[in-house]
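Revision sheet: structure tokens.
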Amino acid sequence: MNGTRQQRRRGDTRQRIQDVALGLFAEQGYEKTSLREIAEALDVTKAALYYHFKTKEEILVSIFEDLSRPLEDLIAWGREQPHTLETKQEIIRRYSEALSGAAPLFRFMQENQATVRDLRIGELFKTRMFGLRDILIDPEADLVDQVRCVSALFTLHAGMFVLRDLEGDPEEQRAAVLEVATDLVTQAHRGAGGS
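Predicted:
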């Protein structure tokens, strides 16, 4: 078997482990899910699972790192952009897309906050949030306008959780939440003396 094919199979297995583990973590809770249960759900031995991941936390961190890569890219991009209204609106739009793409992970994190806080991903997530805050707010703006920018981020988070049980098209809900978040950064930018 050639190296590329072997890497692809290894990557597929890694992805399957992540998907199954995240499903079990969401269904049963992180603390109540064992490596043995993950292996059984995958129909592999615990040793085969151990080849890829030594602990549940390693699995969870790998999921977080993979699904939050767009956030890292967004933060890096935002640091290089001028601090304009258009940049802020684009940050909010891209963050909304990133949240949508990683919805199962962020739902898990929301529903398991106490556990997440004690794990490495809690600190990783906090670092990403501070990075987003820093590219979105104007440090010279009034506190109220800084709060508006941070509130725009949390509006996107809340929309993901609070609206999911309401009737209606999920994409329309996401668009409505995005509009509100965009309005918040627009208000903040105008309050900070922007045009």
